[in-house]
Amino acid sequence: MPTVRANGLDVHYAAEGSGPPLVMLHGASSSAVEDWSAQRPLFRRAFRLYLVDLRGHARTRGGTGGPISAADLADDLLATVDALGLATFHLAGFSLGGIAALHFAAARPERLRTLVLVGVDSRREPRASVARVLLDSDRIERQEPEWAAQLERRHDPVQGPGAWRGLLRAVLGGIREERPLSPADLRRVRVPTLLVVGDRDVFVPVDHAAALYRQLPEAQLCIVPDCGHQAMVLRPALFRDVAERFYRSTAAVATERAMAARRPGAGPGPRRAPMPGALLARPDLGTSDGGAQ
Questions:
Q1: pLDDT tens digits along 221-243
Q2: Domains of the chain in sequence order
């Protein structure tokens, strides 16, 4: 399985498909291949996918000696795309990976063609309080033994026996110590952006998602009805429909941003993507979701 040396880590990734590069980041305790499994068949027809395992997760060994912060993960991402030779790229992130993607976009917007964020909040609460309960390893072993076994199978073969417990502690530590992005930080994310949130997401209240949408200069917001945190898993067909329309509507701007990055001393072009504002995804969009709740 391919790896690159980045930020002192051997970062594992899976690559598939052909087309412009799309880097995909996963949520806490998971892997990119698993979190984005429902979207990969369609996306790899249009993009060259790079499904990256975050530090301490799955096959990316190490990096859990202290808290795992979104800023650390953004630094890892920068080193990873540099090692892969990606001057500009599309970026999609879910949950913890989405927060890392948002930090990256605030620091290096010129590297991005587009940005897709699922289940992302720029505030610490209620995310920290919910994670403190749901990611407690003792509770998981006691109340959700099947998930504990899954975490062991996912992480321990590469990270070592019992590593999943240390991983969850590191993730929780990072959330506790995280410095939320300021309004000024968010205004720097001048990238065509799609925000997706389920209306029943316990980590991200809808009003928080709407507040984040209003602070990002070039954002669209999709609120998915009757859906929890994993919108791309729980409503896969609806998510594909919304994402496809987003990528089509921003294709010209994404190309301009890629070409601008190749010109010495030039930043992304001044043209803005057509942004129709907030979207409400409804069941009558003509999609059907076998994975719906």
A1: 999 999 999 999 999 999 999 99
A2: 3-123+182-285 (3.40.50.1820)
